[in-house]
Amino acid sequence: MNYYEHHLGDYDGATAHLSWLEDCAYRRLICLYYRTEAAIPADLKQACRLVRAVSKPERDAVEQVLTEFFELRADGWHNTRCDQDIGTYQDTAPDREAKRENAKERQRRSRDRRRELFEALRALDVVPAWDAPTRLLESLLSQHKGQPVTPVKPPVTPPVTPPVTPPVTPPVTRDDTATQTPPPRHHTPEEIQGRPREHATPPPRPPDVSAQTWADWLSLRRTKKAPVTETVLDGARSEASKAGLELDAFLRVWCTRGSQGLQAEWLRPAERGRTASEPAEPAWRREQRERNEAFLGPAAAKRSQPATATATAEVIDVAARRLG
C-alpha cells in the first residue's frame, strides 16, 4: 500500500497517553505494517531493527506499543485496524488492475486514431500543429476531404511595359503666383546660434539708483543670461532692506561680487559698510524700525536709530561732611 487513511481524532484519542518515544514507535510500526502488507515480526529484536529502535528506551517503547496495540499470533504481531484496511485494499486489487488495463487500451486507441488523422491531413497538404486536439483534427479532415485538390500553378509574370513619360508642367505665369505656396526654408544650426537672443525689456531705473550702478547691474544680468523684471528688482530691494543698505549700495556690492544672485545673509561686515567689530543690527531693532517706517514714515526710523555720539559723563568730587 502506498497510502492509508489517517484519522486525526481517532488517533489522538487512542494515543494521548503515550510518551514521545512510544508515539514515534507506534507511527513507525503502522507504516511498516501498511508498506509490507504483513504482520510485524514476532521477534522483538527484528521488529526493533525494522523500525530503527537502537537505544534501550526506544526498544522499551516498541515493546510497550506492541503489547498494548497489537496481538501476537503465529505469524507475528497483528493490528485489527491495519488488517481491515489491507484486506479492503487487496479485495479491490482486481478492479484496479482492470481499470489500469482499460486506461492503457484507451491511450493506445487514441494514439492510433491521431496517427491516422495526421496521415490523412498530410495527404491533403494540410499540416496541423503537433499538439492539436483530436476534435480539431477531425474537423479539418471533414472540411478538406470533400474539396478537390487543385494543382499549384506557377506565378504569371506580367509583360514589361514601356516607361511612362511624365506630363509636362506649363510654366507659372504672374497671375498664377498668388495661389502658390513658397517652399519652406529650414534654418541651419549656425544661423540659429548666430541669431541674437530676445530679452524682455527691463523695467525703468529706480530713482534711488545711479545711472552707472544701474548700467553695471544690467550688464551683469545679461552676462549671466538672467532676466531683469519687476519681481527681481523687488527681491533685490527686500534683500537690501534686510542688510540695512540702500538699493544703490546693495546693487554695487552685487556688481562687485559678479554673482547671479545675492542675499542679505551672504554679505560680509565690510560689504555692509561697518567693521567686523561693529555688531550687526538686531532683529528686534530692525522689526521696530520697519514698523516705524510703515506707520510714521522715514523720519521716525531715523529717530529710532541709536545715537552714535558718546555722552561724556560728568563726575563731581564732593567731600563727605556730617551735619548736626
What gap, in angstroms, lies between the N and C termini? Answer: 136 Å
Mean pLDDT reading: 80
Q: Can you tell me the residue ranges where pLDDT is under 50 for at least 5 consecutive residues?
A: 307-313
Count of runs of 4 or more consecutive helical residues: 13
Which term fits the overall shape?
flat
Largest sheet: 2 strands, antiparallel
**Which structural category do the helix and sheet elements fall into?**
mainly alpha
Order of helices and strands: HHHHEEHHHHHHHHH
How large, in whole angstroms, is the Cα Rg?
56 Å
Strand arrangement, major sheet: 1-2
Number of DSSP-assigned strands: 2
The percentage helix is 40-55%
What is the beta-strand fraction?
Answer: under 5%
In short:
About 50% of the residues lie in helices and about 0% in strands.
What does this structure look like?
By secondary structure, the chain is mostly helical. Among the domains are: 8-91; 95-145; 211-274 and 281-304, no CATH class. Helix content is 51%, strand content 2%. The chain has helices spanning 8-15, 20-36, 44-50, 56-69, 80-91, 93-123, 134-145, 189-194, 211-223, 230-242, 247-257, 283-296, 298-304, and strands at residues 71-73, 76-78. The protein has a two-stranded antiparallel sheet with strand order 1-2. Helix 9 (211-223) packs across helix 11 and helix 12 runs antiparallel to helix 13 (298-304). The longest helix has 31 residues, at 93-123. The chain is flat and about 135 Å long. The termini are far apart.
